[in-house]
Amino acid sequence: MTTMTSPEINRAEPFAPSEPVEMIRHAEQLRAGVEWVAAQRVRVSKRIVTETRTITVELRREELVVERTFDTSGLAGDSTAGSEPGGADGAPFLELVLHEEVPEVSVGVVAVERVRIFKDTVSGTTLVQADLRREEIEVVDVPSAASEVDQRRP
Question: CB of 100 within 8 A of CB of 63?
């Protein structure tokens, strides 16, 4: 704030009506400007988060199905198809290989999102308040010595 001083007035000199008397009145004015200052610092980074995912995979497998039929044709001794000698007791046997699917799990990295970061300037208003001082000029009518004598007479 600015310090205001009152002008010097010499009260000993008589007031001469033919000469103009001037006083300058001062007042404070409120001016507002802006300054660009750092308000916040932001750090942008990526991090890896591990989460467990469960998915359902449909699997197939071969199962052995035994179908028994009774031979009524009399060909019970002719069962050489698919049989091989060499069992523990020399009896023929049939060997089958059963298959099944097993899940294959692989993890791959794919781009899922692009994030763009930018700065934007937002405008707004704010109220600024301050106490301002001003000078006031006051004119006081001071009676002269002759008018004081006239007022005392009855």
Answer: no
